[in-house]
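User: Is it possible to get a 3D structure for a protein together with its bound compound? The compound here is zinc ion. I've pasted both below.
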Amino acid sequence: MLLLAFESSCDETSAAVIRGGWVLSSVVSSQTNLHAEYGGVVPELAVREHIRNLQPVASAALAAAGVSADAIDAVAATQGPGLPAALMVGLKAAQAFAFVRRKPFIGIHHHEAHLYSPWISGQPPRAAFDEFQPNVSLIVSGGHTMLVQVESELKHRVLGGTIDDAAGECFDKTGKLMGLAYPAGPIIDRLAEQGSAARYDFPRPLINEANDDFSFSGLKTSVRYFLRDNPALLDDPVAMRDLCASVQIAIVDVLVTKTIRAAKRLGVRCVTASGGVTCNRVLRRELLARCQKHGFQLRLADPSLCTDNAAMIGVLAERRLAQPEFANDYDGEIQAGWALA
Ligand code: KG4
Ligand code: ZN
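Assistant: Yes, that's possible. Here is the predicted structure of the complex:
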């Protein structure tokens, strides 16, 4: 079965062709540079770009997989959560594509798809569901930060999430205070490489709380006050690198400590992570070190699949289509505020 999947929930337009867990192609058109000028995603611009790019991206995905549109057996798209009008572009186009060809269509929960992206690996990429293990999954990006227990394939339970800013938002907003461009996460990652993380001590919000929730707005505020009191530091390249490293380790420490604690408490043997912030090299390194220490298997989404992509949508859609309760949904509406069950 050949499945064509679409993703358009935020600022990436993506299409992928999947067959039997193999990712035959995955094309992502990112709008990051477009939104950079405005310091964040501008919904109206995102929608315009999705409309412009969806068809070429889908054609490119079909061409890269070496298949024609007529060969597609099933279609999937992100149904939510996300920016309403952005979701609408991908969902309605995908439903129309499926309807005119009388092929099954399935709408997918964006966060649920993130849970399975760490299982996609290798070259060519394949979803290794045969290697699946119950796990605790960290989803961490510009829009979301959550911990989820994945008890078995397609069965999960949200443990906790951020009560204010997402971790990526914290990278981006503290970076903005430091005068860095948007998105600041990758810039902080790079500057921190040669900085001393021990130089400045920033708070690790909720790190010792007996829950699986996160809060990052206090950390951002403490960076704001710190820079108000030490403005000259922004002109000192060494201090800037140390500042980046110190902020980064505060965020990473909270994410890693709470993820490992949840995994230990729940008795799972596997930890996974996905979302744009999972590109962060110190996060990857620290998760690996702490997982090795506690004997957990670690599966990190490949950096190319950390940010939003249709491959993860398609991989989950294939599994869902195979379920007996699957119902065709040509006219299902977007669910912009869809909470992960
Ligand atoms: O998955 P993504 O595209 O999702 C959302 O837009 O929600 O993730 C983008 C986020 C941004 O906040 C960006 O700063 C952050 O991921 N990010 C990073 C790194 N690469 C991307 N944060 C820290 N270090 C990185 N290397
Ligand atoms: Zn996402």
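The first helix runs from residue 32 to 36. The pocket of zinc ion (ligand 2) is lined by residues 110, 114, 141, 275, 308 (CB under 6 Å).
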